[in-house]
Each structure stands twice: as structure tokens, then as C-alpha cells.
Specification:
The protein has eleven helices and six strands. By secondary structure, the protein is α/β, with parallel strands linked by helices.
């Protein structure tokens, strides 16, 4: 099995060393050079592109949000997992909207961290279950103009809700088509309908929308 190249972006030296130590014992992971802020991260990925990035949010010079936004603009396929603390839910909302693939808590264990890296490395999403309720609550406070969950369920078809759940997990149109026994063109049509009905501009915002309305599978 080919190793997954992982880059850590974290300014706190003690936590960074601890995270690196935890990952060093996992056989399927190859650790790249660390970055201590967003600016250094953007320089490093020009030289050696990681398969998965573990990104802190609060950092000097350039924070995780700005770094993620810039990286995804330059490299749309880059896979970023936010490593966050409780209390950063508002920042996580912004990170999801710009296109991160997942988030884990800073006190997570090696097993969950490895699971997150593997899943995101495969192109899927991974969101720590402990944070989903508080994120949903944060979304409700931020976007009070959106409909309540029961109104959304009335607005979307059962098939669209099913496909939205798969989108939240990171499945592509082709994968959704295979799972649901429909054509990729039909799957793409459902995705477009979801964007129109929810008012979302892209897939990342659809994921954020799914979290808000507790539609994670």
C-alpha cells in the first residue's frame, strides 16, 4: 500500500511535536516537513505536495482560514483536515465553506486521526461526530434566514436528501450513481437541483448545509 504523504501546519511547537510523534507510529503515513504558519505552508506545497494536510486555524502571519482559501484557489484538489479545539465552531463554518475535507479535535486519538487521514486521502470527507451538534447549532445562529429542517425535507425529494447525505460524505457524481443505481448524468442533475433548492453556490456549501440540518449519514 502506497503511503499517504501528510503535512502538519501548526504554530504551537509542543502540540506539533506530539502530533508528529502520534503519526510517526502509523505505517501507512509518510510525514513531510512541518509548517508553522500559513505563509510557510504555501511555500512548502509548491515544492512537495502532500496528499493530506492537517491544518490549525489560529496561527501568526497567516491563519488557517486564509492559508486554506489560498491553497484551494491554487490547487483545487488539495485535501485539508482542520485540527480544531472546542470553541472554534464559527471558524470551522468558514473553513467548511471554503472547501476543507474534514475536521478532528485536537485531543483525538491515533485511531481516529488515522481513520480521518485514510478517508480524506481517498477523496471522502471526515467530520468528528462530537463537533456536529455544536456546528449545527452555530449554523442555526448564523443563518437564521434559512428554512427549518422539516421545511427543507418538504422542499427536497427523498432521493435528493439521500444524495445530499452522500455528498456530505464526499462521494463523487460517479460514485453516487453507482450506489444509487442511476446514471452519472442523473446524479449530476440531482446535485445541481440541490444547489438551486438550497441556495448553495458549491459542493462545500452543500456539505455545510448538510451539517446544519443534521443530514450527515
Amino acid at each position: 500500500m502506497e503511503k499517504i504523504k501528510v503535512m502538519i501546519v501548526e504554530d504551537q511547537i509542543i502540540f506539533r511535536r506530539g502530533l508528529r510523534l502520534s503519526l510517526s507510529v502509523i505505517n501507512n503515513i509518510e510525514l513531510l516537513e512541518d509548517a508553522i504558519n500559513g505563509k510557510e505552508f504555501l511555500k512548502l506545497i509548491r515544492v512537495n505536495m502532500p496528499d493530506v494536510v492537517l491544518m490549525d486555524i489560529k496561527m501568526p502571519l497567516m491563519d488557517g482560514y486564509e492559508a486554506t482559501k489560498a491553497a484551494i484557489a491554487l490547487y483545487p484538489d488539495i485535501k485539508i483536515i482542520v485540527v480544531s479545539s472546542y470553541g472554534e465552531e464559527e471558524s470551522l463554518i468558514h473553513m467548511i465553506e471554503v472547501g476543507v475535507k474534514g475536521f478532528v479535535l485536537k485531543d483525538t486519538d491515533e485511531n481516529e486521526l488515522n481513520k480521518a487521514i485514510l478517508k480524506v486521502g481517498e477523496g471522502k470527507n471526515y467530520f468528528a461526530q462530537e463537533l456536529l451538534p455544536v456546528l449545527a447549532s452555530a449554523f442555526m445562529k448564523k443563518r437564521t434566514y434559512l428554512h427549518k429542517k422539516h421545511e427543507i425535507e418538504e422542499k427536497l425529494t427523498k432521493r435528493e436528501i439521500e444524495i445530499l447525505k452522500y455528498i456530505c460524505e464526499g462521494f463523487t457524481n460517479k460514485e453516487v450513481a453507482e450506489i444509487c443505481f442511476i446514471s452519472p448524468r442523473t446524479a449530476s442533475g440531482h446535485r445541481n437541483n440541490l444547489l438551486e433548492k438550497t441556495g448553495c453556490k458549491n459542493t462545500a456549501q452543500l456539505v455545510a448545509f448538510g451539517i446544519k440540518y443534521n443530514m450527515m449519514k
